[in-house]
Structures are given as C-alpha cells and as structure tokens.
Model the fold of this input.
Amino acid sequence: MKDPEIRGTRRDDIPALVDLQRRIYPEIEPWPASRVEQQLEVFPEGQFVAVIDGRIVGCASSIIVRWDDWLTAHTWADITADGTFDTHTPEGLTLYGAEVFVDPAIRGRRVGHLLYNARRRLCRRLNLKRIIACGRLPGYHRYADRIDVETYAMKVVWGDLKDPVLNFQLREGFDFCGVIRGYLPEDAESCGHASLIVWLNTSYRPLRRPDPPPARTLPAPIV
Ligand SMILES: CC(C)(COP(=O)(O)OP(=O)(O)OC[C@H]1O[C@@H](n2cnc3c(N)ncnc32)[C@H](O)[C@@H]1OP(=O)(O)O)[C@@H](O)C(=O)NCCC(=O)NCCS
Done:
C-alpha cells in the first residue's frame, strides 16, 4: 500500500469525509456537511485528511483550548460546542484532538500514526504546550458487566487488556491521565466513557514576558 498523503482538509473533501464517518460510526449521527464547513472556517490549520490515490482514508481534527476552562469533567459536546468548534480559543496553549478516524479497510497500516504526526507537527509549529484528547474505549463494552471503566483503562495501561484506541494512543507516546465518564453518551462501545490522554511538546518555549521597566523610571514612593 502506498503511503497516504496527509494534507489540510479542503471544502471539496467534505462529502467523502462525511461518508467515511458514516461508515465508521454507523450508530452515531454523522456531522452534517455544514458543520465540517464551519470547522474549516474556524480553524483550517487544525483539520487534516489522509488521502491515497485521491481517496479520503482518514482524518484528524483539532481545536485550540485554554485547558483550565475544561479540566473538570466535560463532554465532547461541551468542549467542541456540539462539533461547531465555537470553543476554539487561539490564545490557548493546548491543541485538543476533537476527532480521528481511519478507514476500517486499512487500519493497522500506520495511517493513524501519520495523522498523529501531523498533529504533533502543528503543535510544535504553533508553539503549543501539549496535545490533549479524550479517547474512545471501544473495547470496554465487553467487560462492562465485570469491571468498572477505570479498572478497564488501567488494565490496558498495565498491559493486561488490549483496547484498539487506547493502545494506539499509548504507542503514539500519550500518557493516560484518567477516565472521563459520560464523555460521549452515544458511544455504545465505550459505554459513553473516554480516557483522558496527554502528549507534552518538549520543544514548547514559554513566550518571553516584557521586561519590567527600569527601576529609575518607577514613581518615587509616597512617604
Ligand atoms: C484509532 C485509529 C485511528 C488508529 O488508526 P490506524 O491507522 O489503524 O493506526 P496505526 O496503523 O498507526 O496503528 C495501529 C495500531 O492500533 C491498533 N489497531 C487499532 N485498530 C486496529 C484494527 N482494526 N486493525 C489493526 N490494528 C488496529 C493496533 O494495535 C495497531 O498496532 P501495531 O502498530 O502494533 O500494528 C483507528 O483504529 C480508528 O479509526 N478507529 C475507529 C475510530 C476511533 O475510535 N477513533 C478514535 C477516536 S478517540
């Protein structure tokens, strides 16, 4: 298989993207085309597709957030403003992964890895501090009658269970930070829950603050 080209999403990709999303999540209502158009308008640099021979085979979409606004429990609908990306905050320091998927016919062939590379490049280029995402836990429904979701996720981290999404993200260098319950209630495979994961940008440099004025220009103290 040829390596896919990873490039910015264009408006003419939208019908194929919506079609792929419908195949990947048959149980979940796909984004209407107008929603993807809006996402592209809000943060075009954050939207990527993977293309092989002119065919869309995957996508990764992100926004920027101020993480302090969201660190308590939140849902996918909250943090993405129902997928409109109206919550995109350019002055934030966190690239937030809103969605990633790959055509089921070519999973396991590093397309997801290349999409994650594109995200990491964007994070470094914009000098953002980190990438945070809430990942699906699609293997959890098979264990939900026996163990709680926190135990399930920890067993994946410990290497005792395998989850198709969390294992992929751990291999991509993300750290598991905990579970967000009820993150995407319509995700039946994950029983609505998600894992909170982070990747730190080690080349992030805090912006220099302006120097304080020289002492001699300070007003004289009032005595
Ligand atoms: C998660 C996802 C994007 C990974 O994409 P991918 O192109 O298969 O990723 P890669 O090829 O770079 O990595 C694959 C690894 O993930 C795992 N994997 C996940 N699903 C797999 C599948 N159906 N077949 C084979 N491997 C799979 C494998 O462990 C594989 O490991 P390996 O590198 O040791 O072979 C893809 O599985 C997907 O689209 N899943 C459905 C949508 C989804 O849940 N997205 C996550 C939203 S949080």
